[in-house]
Amino acid sequence: MPRWTDILKANSTLIMGVLNVTPDSFSDGGRFLGIDAAIEHATQMARDGAGIIDVGGQSTRPGAKPLSVGEELGRVKPVVERLVRKIDVPISIDTFQPEVADECLQAGAAIINDVCGLRDPRMIAVAARHQAPVVLMHMLGTPMTMQKEINYQDVVEDLKTFFGQRTRAAAAGGLREIMIDPGIGFGKTADHNLQLLGRLAEFKELGYPVLVGASRKSFIGKITGLPVEERLEGTIAATVAAALNGADAVRVHDVAECKRALLITDAIKRRRS
To answer: Lower CB density within 10 Å: C or N end of the chain?
Structure first.
């Protein structure tokens, strides 16, 4: 399995391209549910500059109900199996179900992206057995509940405490290749999301690379008044802000457009370092 140091490039923000093979994701549900459409889209994202393709079969929009292991595997495993033969970039599996992660890693995926922050100890065991890099994300509760009772003393400090606890548990379980994700939109208000983007540098104190996924999120719609299909400019702005404030990687739907913006952003970062 690769290491994060193998995947991340110095002075360049890594792009994780979103591949939702779901009928109900908040921004592109149903567009890439068919295997051929999913493979074509992933291949294009790799051409456009994605350094990882993140395959997910379970919607995590607010209020989403979990799938069974069989249902989720039926969506993602055939895509993973074909993608690893089609493209050279690593495939991550976006799941919080250990059985799904295990089978997809066996099928050729290289990374686990867990929106539940490895809270299930079986997920840590799966990652350790495969020696897979992981993305450990913060979410308040579950997709069903995350936007119902949002309360933080200080959103950044509270998340730093969470990441300290979860990374220690991951390390105790044998994991070394860990990336953290503050979970923009997952149990946060628009103001919390803005605070997280503005204070990303504080997460670097924890010693782990940072991933940010702000693409097309509802806080962009709240600020701009635009529906999800018209949030490209807001996504680019949030992505650039994340990169300037310390993100090592960004998770986006619009790879080509964000890549172009990040070429300039990374050039600015190189000049000031």
So the answer is: C
Cβ-contact 65, 23 below 8 angstroms:
no
Q: What's the whole-number average pLDDT of the chain?
A: 93
pLDDT digits (tens, 9 = 90+) for 69-120: 999 999 999 999 999 999 999 999 999 999 999 999 999 999 999 999 999 9
8 A C-beta contact, residue 148 and residue 181: no
**What single string gives the DSSP state of each residue in 228-257?**
GGG-HHHHHHHHHHHHHTT-SEEEES-HHH
Catalytic one among 160, 188, 217, 259? 217
Question: 13-272 sits in which CATH class?
Answer: alpha beta
User: Among 188, 216, 231, 251, which one carries the catalytic annotation?
Assistant: 251
Both tokens of residue 206?
Answer: 């924890």
Record the tokens describing residue 138, joined without a space: 């913060």
Based on the residue annotation, tell me whether 251 is a catalytic residue of this protein. Answer: yes
Integer Cα distance of 106 and 177 in angstroms: 18
